[in-house]
Amino acid sequence: SEQTQPPHLVVTLQHRPPTFVYCGLFHCAAAGDPAPPRPHRHVLTAGFDRRLHLWDTRRGGRHKGTLGGLVQHKSHVNALCWEAKTGRLYSADGAGVILVWRKTGPGTEPQHFSAVREVRHPQLLGKAVTGLALRPLRRRGQL
């Protein structure tokens, strides 16, 4: 019979300089990725500092797992969403802007991602976007 382990701290992601973290999620590999990361190994966080921080939870050392950050937003980042089918990343901020990121290289480091689209919907501009969801039954991702 399986014994249930009590909850415990797995890893601490120390942001430097300290900042408010508003959202985070585990990395989902795209279906075509030749070497998808192990479950729960890569984490993405974002918040008040307007950066998307990429982390490797199994990496130690001086930087405690940080792979670096993506900087493109002009306001604090409130929401993140991965599209597992294509590996695209969506991020939304406090100014109502949504960025679409595409993986451009083989790794998960920040230099392997680039912003490919900026969505500025008139009804969202100036309003904080606090959640993102994709419609799973569409052939293409749809916010």
Give a description of the structure:
With 143 residues, the protein is mainly β. The chain has a domain at 21-28 and 39-119: Thrombin, subunit H. The protein is 0% helix and 35% strand. The protein has strands at residues 21-26, 42-47, 51-56, 66-71, 77-83, 88-93, 98-103, 113-119. Strands 1-2-3-4 form a 4-stranded antiparallel β-sheet, with no helix packed on it. The protein has a 4-stranded antiparallel β-sheet with strand order 5-6-7-8, with no helix packed on it.
What keyword list fits this structure?
mainly beta; 0% helix; WD40_repeat_dom_sf; 4-stranded antiparallel sheet; WD40/YVTN_repeat-like_dom_sf; 143 residues; Thrombin, subunit H; Cilium-Associated_Jouberin; 8 strands; Peroxin-7; globular
Characterize this entry briefly.
By secondary structure, the chain is mainly β.
Task: Please identify the structural class as seen in this structure.
Answer: mainly beta
Q: How many distinct beta strands?
A: 8
Q: What would the average pLDDT be, to the nearest integer?
A: 82
CATH architecture of the domain at 21-28 and 39-119: Beta Barrel
CA radius of gyration is 16 Å
* Oligomer kind: single chain
Number of distinct helices: 0
Q: Which regions have little confidence, pLDDT < 50, spanning 5+ residues?
A: none
Query: What is the ordering of alpha helices and beta strands?
Result: EEEEEEEE
Measured between the Cα atoms of the first and last residue, the distance is 43 Å
What is the helical fraction, as a range of percent?
under 10%
Here the CATH topology of the domain at 21-28 and 39-119 equals Thrombin, subunit H
CATH class type of the domain at 21-28 and 39-119: Mainly Beta
Global shape: globular
**Portion in strands:** 25-35%
With strands numbered from the N-terminus, the spatial order across the biggest sheet is 1-2-3-4
**How many strands, which pairing sense, and closed or not: the largest β-sheet?**
4 strands, antiparallel
